[in-house]
């Protein structure tokens, strides 16, 4: 039987868009529920280390789900292929702002720098690196080196940690000093109480408080991976993306092969937008998605009403218009099938508010 995701891909564009926006509303409702709010408060009281994750836009890499961590604890940075450069001005500012906010509140920062791969089939790896796992891993190490240059090489305040994610099993692979590795798949059937000693040996320079707050992720991932053993999973290797997302605030979107997410971090946004449009066009031509349309979703998060929200609205509208211009230039026929949706996200509640929605032909 086809998965719900596969069934969604075959629906008319209006129904697909409604389903996606409904997913956003459901995410905000869960995030704001009393039990979710209390779970976050309790978790942060016990594990105050700030955790940021640099990751690919691939919907399979859902770290909170795979580690059984309450929503809102982990701050994601998502981009096509998980490709970043901390020298990019906006990305560097956002990351530094996050680190300073944590430091001012007496909290260290754990920076998980991820790459992903499939052990069952190379073609299920990261398309951003042409499924070359070694290249993806090398890029993750390059980001870790930049983090040391930015925040200090002693790693006492900010600890950059290269972490693989095996998408067939949802297992994390932690890379430590001297090429040592802790693969959660190897821990299945072992006692979770052994993980603290293994982590300490793996990363002897990691501060005790960061080790303490990383361990729940590893324990949660071990439980998650163990539970999936023997469970039939649709690994979904076929590209069926029908959404181009530009901006930030898409943490509700973890449907595999649905969206191409372009973070507004790099100095050249036109190239990844054109690449994303090429993928959508190829999906239509191959019959993997209907030819009746695709969605362009622009989003910017904001914290406060007033100027902060106004700035977010202006930025979302700019990103939407810029993306449309690029798509019309490189794929004029495809642009006629575009459904633009512009929004802002109230980050404390994860509520997405629509600013406008229109088809390209309107």
UniProtKB/TrEMBL annotation:
It comes from the Bacteria. InterPro entries: Carbonic_anhydrase_sf. This is Carboxysome shell carbonic anhydrase. The lineage of its organism: Bacteria, Pseudomonadati, Pseudomonadota, Gammaproteobacteria, Oceanospirillales.
């Amino acid at each position: 039987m086809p998965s719900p995701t596969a069934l969604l891909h075959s629906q008319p564009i209006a129904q697909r868009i409604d389903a996606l926006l409904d997913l956003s509303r459901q995410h905000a409702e869960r995030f704001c529920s009393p039990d979710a709010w209390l779970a976050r408060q309790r978790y942060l009281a016990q594990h105050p280390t700030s955790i940021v994750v640099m990751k690919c836009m691939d919907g399979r890499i859902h770290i909170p789900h795979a580690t059984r961590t309450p929503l809102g604890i982990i701050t994601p940075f998502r981009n096509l292929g998980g490709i970043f450069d901390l020298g990019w001005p906006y990305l560097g500012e956002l990351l530094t702002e996050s680190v300073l906010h944590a430091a001012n509140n007496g909290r260290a920062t754990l920076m998980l720098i991820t790459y992903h791969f499939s052990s069952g089939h190379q073609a299920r790896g990261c398309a951003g690196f042409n499924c070359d796992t070694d290249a993806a891993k090398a890029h993750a190490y390059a980001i870790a080196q930049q983090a040391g240059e930015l925040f200090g090489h002693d790693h006492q305040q900010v600890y950059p940690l290269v972490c693989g994610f095996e998408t067939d099993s949802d297992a994390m692979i932690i890379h430590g000093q001297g090429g040592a590795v802790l693969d959660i798949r190897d821990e299945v059937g072992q006692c979770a109480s052994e993980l603290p000693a293994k982590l300490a040996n793996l990363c002897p320079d990691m501060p005790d408080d960061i080790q303490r707050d990383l361990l729940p992720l590893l324990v949660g991932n071990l439980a998650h991976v163990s539970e999936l053993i023997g469970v039939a999973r649709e690994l979904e290797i076929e590209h069926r993306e029908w959404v181009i997302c530009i901006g930030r605030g898409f943490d509700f979107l973890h449907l595999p092969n649905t969206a191409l997410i372009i973070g507004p971090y790099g100095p050249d946004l036109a190239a990844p937008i054109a690449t994303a449009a090429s993928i959508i066009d190829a999906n239509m031509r191959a019959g993997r998605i209907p030819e009746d349309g695709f969605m362009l979703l622009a989003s910017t998060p904001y914290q406060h009403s007033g100027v902060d929200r106004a700035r977010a609205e202006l930025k979302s509208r700019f990103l939407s218009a810029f993306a449309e211009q690029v798509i019309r230039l490189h794929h004029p026929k495809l642009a006629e099938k575009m459904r633009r949706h512009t929004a802002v996200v109230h980050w404390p509640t994860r509520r997405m508010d629509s600013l406008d929605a229109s088809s390209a032909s309107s």
